[in-house]
User: Which sequence fits this backbone?
């Protein structure tokens, strides 16, 4: 036998299988494994485990029943003889099981979720169900804030579509915070608004693979909207700039349409920084013109105010 104890060998089995370690250490491991049938059995069990994990991970997702098979293998090996157990097999089994769980979890995070087209019916029903479930749960919001920029920052990287950086609260509605949701096979953002009469949830998601229900033009919104009645709630659905918006509430539909109109109007307005730059430019130009005797200097503020509604440059 080499200088390594069985415990030392077993602690390094996964490294050994992965080809890690100094040449001298690997030679000592090899010598011990040649001479020690117990450790050799552990090595084969570990090899089998690694191979099965690799096969499982070759596809997008772990095959059904993988976990049961791995655990059955572990149980069978552990039951094979008490000596295996004496030499720390439970520890290895626990480590291997944790490793398997970790891999499955990591793969679930890294690989894109299986894509299925979301049918219009699901887009109508699921946001309403989420809204009702949220209210029944009494759960707090993920972020409580009336600052749209803060909420937008919080969602960065958490959902596929994010939320517009300057998503505002339409006049008469208070932005109170946001929630991260998972339904329709994707992570999506819910911005929560309040009026004295009730609560509204605005869901924002990527329009990727979503079939929109039939919509009618709503001139005030500048978009085609579809409107639906589900479980005593109303949902209004529209598409805008690569995103799908779903507004859900039990408020009257007219009130909800007022929200959509206000939201669209606010989104059309130039961002504050842009307006400030334009104001400065116009004021300077007006000042220069006045000094040159071309126009009256009393007007620059009005000229600046007229700049605000310019929209095409400000919109993405
Ligand atoms: Zn040994």
Assistant:
């Amino acid at each position: 036998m080499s200088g390594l104890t069985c415990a030392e060998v077993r602690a390094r089995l996964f490294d050994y299988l992965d080809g890690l370690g100094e040449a001298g250490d690997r030679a000592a491991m090899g010598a011990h494994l040649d001479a020690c049938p117990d450790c050799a059995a552990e090595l084969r069990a570990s090899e089998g485990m690694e191979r099965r994990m690799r096969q499982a991970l070759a596809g997008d997702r772990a095959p059904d029943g993988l976990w049961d098979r791995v655990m059955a293998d572990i149980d069978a090996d552990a039951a094979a003889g008490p000596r295996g157990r004496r030499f720390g097999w439970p520890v290895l089994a626990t480590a291997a099981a944790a490793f398997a769980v970790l891999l499955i979890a990591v793969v679930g995070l890294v690989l894109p979720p299986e894509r299925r087209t979301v049918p219009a019916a699901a887009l109508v029903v699921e946001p309403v169900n989420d809204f009702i479930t949220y209210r029944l749960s009494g759960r707090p919001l993920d972020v409580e804030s009336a600052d749209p920029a803060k909420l937008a920052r919080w969602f960065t990287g958490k959902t596929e579509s994010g939320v517009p950086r300057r998503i505002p609260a339409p006049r008469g509605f208070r932005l109170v915070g946001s929630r991260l949701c998972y339904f329709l096979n994707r992570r999506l953002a819910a911005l929560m608004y309040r009026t004295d009469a009730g609560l509204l949830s605005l869901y924002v998601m990527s329009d990727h693979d979503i079939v929109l229900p039939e919509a009618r033009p709503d001139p005030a919104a500048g978009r085609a909207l579809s409107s639906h009645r589900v479980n005593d709630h109303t949902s209004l659905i529209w598409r805008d700039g690569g995103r799908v918006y779903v507004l859900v509430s039990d408020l009257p539909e007219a009130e909800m349409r007022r929200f959509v109109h206000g939201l669209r109007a606010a989104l059309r307005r130039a961002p504050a920084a842009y307006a400030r730059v334009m104001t400065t430019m116009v004021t300077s130009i007006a000042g220069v013109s006045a000094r040159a005797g071309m126009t009256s200097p009393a007007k620059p503020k009005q000229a600046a105010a007229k700049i605000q509604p310019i929209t095409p440059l400000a919109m993405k």
